Structure formats: C-alpha cells, structure tokens
Amino acid sequence: MRSLFGNLHTPSSFSPLSGQPPGRPARGSGLFWLVICVLAGWLQAAALAWPVRGWSPPGLSPGEPSGWLQIGSLALLVLALLHVHQARQGVWRAWVFATAWLASTFWWLFVSMHTYGGLPAWLAALAVVMLAGLLALYYALAAGLMCALAPRSRLRQAGMFAALWTLAELARGRWLTGFPWGAGGYAQVDLMAAWAPWVGVYGMGAIAALLAYALAVGLSAMGAWVLSAMVPPTRRPGAPDPVRWYHQRGRALAATQAVAGAVLLGALLSSVLWGDAWRDHGQRDTAAHGELRVWLLQGNIAQDQKFEPGTGVAQALRWYPEQIAVAAEAARVDTLRGPQLVVAPETALPMLPEQLGDAFWQPLLRGLSQPGASVGALLGLPLGSYEQGYTNSAWGIEPGTAAAPQPDGFFRYDKHHLVPFGEFIPPMFRWFTDLMRIPLGDFNRGALAQPAWSWAGQRIAPNICYEDLFGEELAASFQSPGTAPTVLVNLSNLAWFDDSVAIDQHLQISRLRALELGRPMLRSTNTGATAVINHRGEVTHQLPRQTRGRLEAVVEGRSGSTPFARWAGRWGLWPVWVACLTVVALLASRRPRRRRARGA
User: Fold this and answer.
1) What stretch or stretches form a coiled coil here (predicted)?
2) Is 354 exposed, middle or buried (0-12, 13-18, 19+ CB in 10 A)?
C-alpha cells in the first residue's frame, strides 16, 4: 500500500501505527498527532534558547541553544507527516506545529503590546497568535507540496523536505516585511558552527531538516520492522505462499529503509561533528586586523521611564556622558590600556540633538577633544526633523570632529531594516497602532551597505536592534575587501520585552552573524545582553542582564571574507532560493506518474 509520501508503510495490508488500511486512520489518531505537533512546536522554540530558568535538560543551561533538540522536535513533525492519509492532514499538522513554534518563540511581543502598549491582555495574546498563524502558512504550504510531490525514494524525500522547509524559512524572512526571528538554523549555532561560514543560517537549517527527516524515517522504519516481526501475516485458509512472501518482503524492505536512514543520518552527523576543522577552513581567508579596546555601556533604564523627562531621560543624560568622560580621562592617563571606543546602546540619548542643547553637548565634546584622550564614542540617538523625517541612528564622534562646532563631520549610521509597527506602520494597520499607547511613527529608512566608520585602525560597522537578524544585508558591506568592516557593533534596546528569553535569543542571533561573516560582534544594549562575541561566535565577555554598568574588553578585528560573506554580499540569498527551487523541481519531475485506471 502506498500513502501520499510513497511507501511510508510496510507493504502489508495495514498501517503499522494505526492498524487500519491506508486512507482510513484509526479513531483518535488525528488528535494524538496534533498534540505531538503542539509539543514539538514548543520544543522547536525552546531549542533556540531554553526558556525555563528553574529547570533545564541535562547538559543544557537556561538561555542556551540546543541543535539536537531542534532536530529532534522537527523529526516529530516529520513523523506526523509520515502518517498522514490525505494532503490536507499534512497541511493542518504543519500549520499547528509552526503556529505553536512561532508563538512560543516570540511570545514576548505580548509584553510590549500589553505592558507598554496598553492593549488588553486578550487582544495582545490574540495578536501574537494571529501573527504566528499567518507566518505558519509558509510551512503549511511546504507540507502540502511535500504530500503532493514527494518521490518514492527515501533519500529523495529527505532532499525535497529540506528544500521545501528552507523555502518556507526564506519566504518568512523575505515577504511581508520579513520576520525570520527564530529560524531553525539559529539553534545550530554551536552544533553546526562549522557550516556557518560556508552556507549561513539557512543552509544550516537545511542540513538540520535533512537530519530530522533521516531520524524520523529511521525511527519509523525500525518501528515498522519490529511491528511486522511481532504481528503474524494475515492469510486465509488455502491462500498461496506469495502472501507470506509478500509479508516477509515487507519486513525486509522496512529493515533496508532503517539501515539506509541510519547510514544517511550517520553521514550527516559525521559532517557536523568534524566541527572546528571545517569552521577554521571556512575562515582561512580572514586574518587578524589589530586589537581594539572597548567600553560597552548598559544603562538599564526601565522602558516605562525611558522617555519620561523627569526619570529615564534625566538618568540617560546624566549617566552616559559621565561614562564617556571617565573613558576620555582613562584614555588620557594611560594611552596603552585606556579605551579607544565607547559604545552606548540604541536611543541611549532619547532626544534629538537640537533638543539637548549646548549645555549637554559642549561638556561631552570638550571631554572627548582634550589633548591625549584618543577615544571615540558611538551613540544611539534619533536624528532628523519634522520636514525631512526622522531616522533611528548612531553617531560616531572622534576627538578631531568633537572639537568642531557643528556635527557635520560626525560619522552617521541610519537604520536600514525598520521594525514593522514600531518604526513604520504597514498599510491598513494604522487602526492597530492607534490602539497602543506607544510613541510609534514612520521613520525614514537608511541606505543598504552604508560606509563603515574608520577609527582606531578599524572599520566599524554599526547595526541597530534586529538588523543583525538579516545576515545577507550585513554581508552587502563585504563586496569590496578593502572597505569591508573589521568589527561589527549592535546597538539594541530590548527593554520593551522585559527580562524575557528575547534577550537570550538575540544573543544567539548575534553569535551566528559573527560566525557567518568571520567578524567580532560588539553588543551594547539597554538591559542585556551586552557582550563581546569573537569571530568564532564565542561569547568572551558579558555583563549581567538587568544591571547598570560598563563592559571593558579588548577585541581583535578581522579582515578578509568568509565564503558566505562573498556569495551573500554579491547575490544576497538568491543562491539559496535557486538551489532549493532546483532541488524541488528535479525531484518532482522524477516522480512517476500514476497510471490511469483501466477503462477510463
């Protein structure tokens, strides 16, 4: 018997799990698999950063990613798909899985909408689930196509599943403004670190999908083989021997499939476990580019006070300039060990420069420009005017430009990838943003691949908030090796989401960007995680979250390019799109057509 996935069951008269002929699922089995899909979706979200602080599985700490958990949870979905009898069952199960996964991944949006936006709890929760359900449609479509187009061969099925799943991930990250937060590849930042400089997060996700399919097929085939050995063949009295032979052939085929799945699984696992050699080979064209002494500031200003003149604004306008003044004095006293760069987070200064006035700027600039204080400052702040529009920006101030009376010589970076609903309002959604008590508005978008800031012998490239979620956009700055950044800096403010797992998730995302591009990533945030990540994706220094302080560290800049930086910098993600579409087209074209019924 043959299901929509080909020979998913043993060639006996019954499905090994349901006990019913294919096409007639056992009563209650549909509910069982839906529960499995919900559980698997939650585990898929937990794999990016374990969210439960009071307990975690052995070998996994709260906030850490788990590549094995991501593969195992996706394998549960594959098992659910292997036991569908109609394509619509596969679509439904994949949609349930993806909705549970995505809602469990970015549930913290509820905090910003309810706690700080003033939406009723039920409406904020509904908005999160609706967003997750909308994005889950990509994965439901992928499952439906898998059901309709899957070839007979298990190996080809695995390839098609990985390609379709990756296409769904790409579509989620590209269409409808793009929101790829929580893509499966991010959970592989440790397990598959070797692959990051070569194929990036989507390639890592494709490999994980292959492993998940191989694992599910191996488990399913082994279970079918055991059941076929335990359940005697049904034979009517006087039935010919071929019936028994057919049953025995089914057991042999199931055993063969189990062995094939184990071989595929072993081959993929061996490529993952080689680890450091592959990663180092992927960064063979990068080299050390000198050291940079940095201070990363974490103001820990509560979000509900951040824009209040008497509380949060006053704290910011007092504490950040104090830290810059201390840094300038330290650099003047000890030019060999003092800081060369001070970084303040996104909107550290929550007012326009004109609103701050000379009383604020003159002491700050005078401190930076004092003789012998060779320190630069990178500050997050809004820029613009009512007539020209506003940008979420960063200013780079160095001693030479600090002495100028006007900021025309300051380095400026304007955020390119804006947050929907936060920094721009999608068409037809003004009514939704009007329901919230958050100062939302339409910001202007900065250019892609803006020039880096040349300071202290480094080329420093800022990115703001979740811009480091888009590796292909950061890679656009690597098209010319002579001007490519040597240090990446992320300025963020995750106080909108309180002390949630969003902080841990964002840290793993930054780690993967460092791996892909072969560059250190400096993170300066309001409440966490303020950290230094080296070019190997390792966190070398980190401040405790939800505290006020500065992180003092020395980071090594890097020059050269990884394979990912080269191809993504030139073509973006188009090579991944083309590769996946080609795999699907080739495997679908080799699927044998069904014979027409006699007499039709």
Assistant:
1) none
2) exposed
